[in-house]
Amino acid sequence: MGSASTLVRQCAVLAVLVALVAWAAPAEAKVWVLATGALALTFFLGVSLYRHRQIRRLADEVDEVLHSGRRVDFSNCREGDVAVLANELGKMTARLARTSESLAAERNALADSLADVSHQIRTPLTAVTLMLPVVERADDSLERKRAVRRLEIMIERVSWLVTTLLKIAKVDAGAMHVERRCVNAAAVVHRAVAPLETAMDLRDVALVLDLDEAATFQGDAPWTAEALENIVKNCMEHTPAGGTVTVTAREDALATTVVVADTGPGIAPDDLPHIFDRFYRGGRSEGAPSVDEDVRQPAGFGIGLSLAQALVSAQGGTLRAANNGEGGARFDIAFPKLVV
Asked: 173, 324, 295: which is closest to 229 by C-alpha?
């Protein structure tokens, strides 16, 4: 409905039409035409004023939603088309409320993530700052080499963290290029575990591969290998000396699965729901080894498994964590043959 001036113009046009019809009517019908026209004009004016008032109320309520953030109930509109308008406005405000809550949650999550990133980067940088004077004061060449090696490890930690965070950000932004081609699962497993063989020897952790050489899946070989490497590395770090990490690859009619299992203490029940959360680090289980400085990728940031899940999910696969019945952790990667 238009404004009050529009309503006045409409009533004026109707009045003129009634007057013209009455003027053209026979003399004995002029009174009836005028009376009928006046009643119709009055009815039109009443209905228009009522609709105008209803729409004005809706406009005021929408204004309150937009400016004060108050939620408004539009359910008290009972007239047909106005009720439809009120219903649509109700849907709109509900959607706006959900969007606002989602943006607020994302903003808080971003703030928390930035705080976590700042803390994670600041820790090795602080260590670097403290080690520089040690290197400068070292008189013995062997002691200086050791200090320089520790310094290199801290720098590698920062570099690995920044690189991993950039990869996760690309996945979140949908900017990561993922190829869809036939990939041999056994080849991906060998590619993933190759960089960790030396670290496993140093930790006295055996690596057992049980692979179906013919198993294939549709995905991206480099990204899958990186995800699998993070999982195997995590299992290695939580397996005591003399333990075993087993990688199994199988293909059936439904999916190609890669399972990584260890003989460590397993995942604590409190940690299991959060195992893939970024920067989440559960308490170190009893019997788990400390982190060697010679490991290619440092542990302790709590983003390796998060990156693995992001890389697998970007290819349409799933990654789940559980505990083996006989002990130890188990990670299942599945690439379904058919996505419904």
From this structure: 295
Per-residue b or e along 195-204, where b marks 16 or more CB atoms closer than 10 Å to that residue's CB:
ebeebbeebe
Which segment of 73-87, 93-107, 300-314 scores lowest on mean pLDDT? Answer: 73-87
Which tokens hold the place of 248? 């199994």
The residues, any chain, with a CB within 8 Å of residue 310's CB and separated by 6 or more, are 167, 168, 171, 172
* Phi-psi group of 252: left, alpha or beta (phi > 0 → left; psi -120 to 50 → alpha; rest → beta): beta
Tell me the residue ranges of DSSP E strands in the chain. Answer: 181-184, 206-211, 216-219, 244-251, 255-262, 318-323, 329-336
Sorting pLDDT into bands at 50, 70 and 90, what band is 287? very low
- CA–CA separation, 212 and 177 (whole Å): 28
Gap between the Cα atoms of 147 and 125, Å rounded: 15
Which residues does 45 contact at the CB level (< 8 Å), separation at least 6? 7, 11
Q: How far is CA 331 from CA 162, 228, 317, in A?
A: 25, 10, 13
* Phi (first) and psi of residue 25, to 5 degrees: -75, 160
Q: Is the whole model's pTM more than 0.70, yes or no?
A: no
φ, ψ for residue 302, nearest 5 deg:
80, 25
Both tokens assigned to 32 = 């009836």
The pLDDT of residue 291 is 36
- C-alpha to C-alpha distance for 185 and 191, rounded to whole angstroms: 10
d(CA 17, CA 15): 5
At 76, the pLDDT band (50, 70, 90 cuts) reads low
* Contacts of the segment 164-172: beta carbons below 8 A, 24+ positions apart: 164/301, 164/303, 164/304, 164/307, 165/117, 165/303, 167/307, 167/310, 167/311, 168/278, 168/303, 168/306, 168/307, 168/310, 171/310, 171/311, 171/314, 172/310
Residue 128, pLDDT above cutoff 70: yes
Query: What mean pLDDT comes out for the span 193-208?
Result: 92
Rounded Cα gap, residues 263 and 246, in angstroms: 9
Structure tokens at 316: 């349409």
C-alpha span between 303 and 336 (Å, rounded): 25
